[in-house]
Every structure is written in C-alpha cells, then in structure tokens.
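Hi all, long-time lurker, first post. I run a small reading group and we've been trying to get comfortable going from sequence to structure in the token notation. Rather than ask abstract questions, I figured I'd post a concrete chain and ask someone more experienced to write out its structure so we can walk through it together at our next meeting. Sequence below, copied exactly:
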Amino acid sequence: MAPVDDALPEGPDKVRAVRSMFDTIAPRYDLVNRVMTLRLDVRWRREAIRSLRLPPGSLVADLASGTGDLCVDLERAGHRPLSFDLSFGMLAADRSGAPRAQADVLALPLPGAALDGATCGFALRNLVDLGGFFDELARVVRPGGRVALLDVATPANPVLRFGHGIYFGRVVPRIGGLLSDPAAYRYLPRSVAYLPPPEEMLARLARAGFETVERRLLSGGITQLVTATRR
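-- Answer (accepted) --
Happy to help. Here is the structure in token form:
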C-alpha cells in the first residue's frame, strides 16, 4: 500500500491512500475488527440498524460498506441492502451477497430519492469531503427516509478518555500490525483528527436537508451514532 506518513493526506492524495490502504487490509479486516473492539463492533452495528426505525423491506444502502457486515445485519433485520465502497479489495471480500458496486460515496450511481435509508460504519473520517457526503445522502434518500452513521468518538469522562487514549493510540496499532498491515493501523488513531467537532457535524447534516438530527455515545463514549430523518 502507499505509505501513510505523519502528515495526514488531503484531497486526491487522501482518496488514493484510503483506497490503497483498504485494498491491503481487506483479507483480515473482519478478524482485526473483532479483536480490537472485543466484538463490540457487532453490537454497534445492530444498534445503528435498530435506530433506522424503518419497516421491513426497506431499501437501505450501506456506504463505504467494507466487507459487508452492515449489509448482513440489514438483511437479517428484513431490509434490502445495497453495498457501495471505493475499495475493490473490500468488495471482493464482501460475503453478504448484497448487490454491490465500486463507487465514490460522494457521487453514488443512484437516482434521487432512490433509498429508504442509508448506513455508514466508521468511514466518515476517511471521506475527503464530509459536507459533500451529507449532501449526497440528502439527494439519494427519500423524504422521510433515515440515516444512521457510526464512527469513533472520544469519551467525555477523563478516566475513560485516558484509558481509551492508551488503548486506541498504542494497543490498537500493535494489534493491527501483528494481524494485518502496520501502516494502516498506525493511521487509524490519527485519522480521528479528520472529524469535525460534533456540533459542527450535526449542524452540517441539518443544513444538507435532515431533521431530528441526533448523536448518541455508545460503550462509554468510544463510539458515536448519528441518526437523522430526511426532510
């Protein structure tokens, strides 16, 4: 993969670096996730799908879908999942069976208002234009449709924040380095710097055309779940 140095990449360089990184780590991506989150990632995904509050049979796209974990859970919940990811390696490792396409989630190959809902799991910080992503969500999700977006967060409690900083900043890169690609998992804790402050992110989602915009912290604040309804 292309090396990720101390300066976080921006613009087209970020797109190339992220795509190359996920192509590289795709074969062992699920294993590393389960180990480094102690399987909490399973709980977080299911909570995101419950928060959609959509009826069975809804057409829901998982964006930056990786190996298809959310698509598997969407189907189990009775929905019709679609899978979109920039990384061909991730799509090749997808075992969900959902219809899939390699695509930039900032320019989805979908007509307007085509979806009942959308999910995105731990990819917001990897996007080159988060505001543009929210605009694209507003374009492809029908009025009344729902979105559920997961990403990492920093606990408010100082004790939890300290412990999480040690684990996320030091332990996770070592786990990733042992089981997969060291450079990719050194990038992971640093990529949090791409995320805007929560209030700014929620305001931008509202400006894109969403209402009932809410943010919940999960597992003591190490993960955030943002939900909203298309106006």
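A couple of things your group might point at:
The beta strands are 59-63, 80-85, 100-102, 115-121, 141-152, 210-218, 223-230.
The mean pLDDT is 95.
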